[in-house]
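Lab notebook, bench 4. Still working through the backlog of constructs that have no structural model yet. Next entry is a single chain of 181 residues. Request: give me the structure tokens for it.
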Amino acid sequence: MTTYAALLRGINVGGNKKLPMAELRTLLEGLGHDDVRTYLQSGQAVFASGHGDEESLATELAQAIEQRFGFTVDVIVRDHAYLSAIVDNCPFPAVELEAKQLHVTYFSAPPGEARFTELDQAAYLPEEFRLGDRALYLYAPNGLGRSKLAVELSRPRLSKGLIATTRNWNTVVKLVELTGS
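Model written out:
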């Protein structure tokens, strides 16, 4: 059995795409997964599974949500080893920063550096980003809500053809803890 985290994009935000976490747990259990838990209301679930891989598990869950709730949701599934590596390879001094200052955008596939070459990073300082393994680390010293770089990074041209979903550092670390227990 491998333990995974499912990251759902855009649910329970502003009254849209309501998906109660208890129902998400039931749905995952119905798909044959074990030790199902959810974290917060914003679309994180942890489960153990002996079948499938990250991509097939994400597709399976997205299809089940659409069948059960009648709307589409983008889903990314990552295992504990990947989530741990994201924390371990953080290019910013996470222990010195407030959690609201550091975010990770998870991508369904590597975004490639070419997408970001036209972006003048110096224009956004002191905000910064770095690419990782199917992820983008964002340092926003005044928080995500005030970040001009975050707005630019969320432009469709930068994630075209990919699923992208962002989590704050507290959630990033908590998912490592939950998938490791």
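Notes after review: Strands lie at 2-9, 34-39, 44-49, 74-79, 102-107, 128-132, 135-139, 164-168. Helices lie at 21-30, 54-69, 80-88, 148-153, 156-159, 169-180. Flag for follow-up if needed.
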